[in-house]
Amino acid sequence: MKKILILIPFFYILTLFQTSFLIHFNVFLKGGFWGYALNPILIAVILITVLEKPEKNSGIFLGVCGGFFLDIFSENFIGFHILILLGLSFFIKFILRKYVRTPIIRPA
Amino acid sequence: MRYNKTMKLSPRVKIGLIIVLLIVLFIIVNLTSFSKEVKNFFYLISSPIQKTLWRAGDNLSDFFEAISEIEKLKKENEKLLLKNQALTAENARLKELKKENEVLREALEIGLEKEFKLLLAEVTGKDISQDALLINKGSKDGILKDFPVITRQKALIGRCGEVYENFSKVILISSKESSFDAKISDSDIQGLVKGKGNLKIFLDLVPKEKEINEGAIIVTTALGGIFPEGLLVGEIKKVFKSDIQPWQEAEIKPAFDIKELETLFVITNF
Description:
The complex is a heterodimer. Chain A has five helices and no strands. In chain A, helix 1 packs parallel to helix 4 (58-72), helix 3 packs antiparallel against helix 4 and helix 4 (58-72) packs antiparallel against helix 5 (80-99). Chain A is mainly α. Chain B folds into two domains: 11-109; 117-269, Rod shape-determining protein MreC, domain 2 (Thrombin, subunit H, Beta Barrel). Chain B is 39% helix and 30% strand. Chain B is rod-shaped and about 150 Å long. The relative contact order of chain B is 0.11.
């Protein structure tokens, strides 16, 4: 919970950075993935979801937060990015929980 | 126990329920003015940071764009320089043609072409110490030794000395090698025009009893057959008389200005 509370303002700043700063760099728009600009929120959500323990749900909550901020600062309706990031987090979690086994090294 | 089992929902149902609830929430939020109020609130608190980030991004992207376009600009610059050079060359050529056209027009106006067969030549070199010029027409253009050379104003310059294939050397009338018969215009006073070097010309062998006025115009005569009749030589500058000598001498101011000579006419037939 503490981690989520710290990461929410970070996501807010990251959204502002994405929508006000990175938007100027056409290089990402031209050569970017499907014509989208670099999306650090998406990357952050994917990384948090992948790297946290499979039983934790921080990635899903942060996906909702990141999506909400992206919706606020974009022309889409509220919910567009929330649903995308939420779906993505669920999907990653599902894959990790069902098909990936991470080796845990316990201290002797 | 049975009640608890029925109330405990499976994870899939939970997720489905959450998604449905979220969708309903989004529909409600977007259909009402609530979304506008939320967006407005966030815009209000974020605008100072957004402005700063926007400016920074703008400046940085301009900087990177300039770097990425350096190569393009370099190529464009080279292309424009080449174009500029081509246009400058064309402009110079057109100016030359215009000048040539003006010279020919002037020559036509004073009727030079009716009197003589002319060949237009350009001065490519000047040797004032030797009283000689180099023109860009030679034997290939039909020039022969001793052909007279005049200006467009019908002023005598000299005659062709050495003739090369593409160039000719013009010996000025002020050269020490030059001497020919001339007379004072509108009178019967005749004499011999001699070059003394350094652009100085003298009218010599004029009988002492003849009155020569300063400023009188000297023109060529057909005597000797070197030059056609009536070409302007210059005007009397100073008269020298001596009691001892039977002849009088006069300094002539040439009708041409060596510094301004650019285009000349070679008389190929007279």
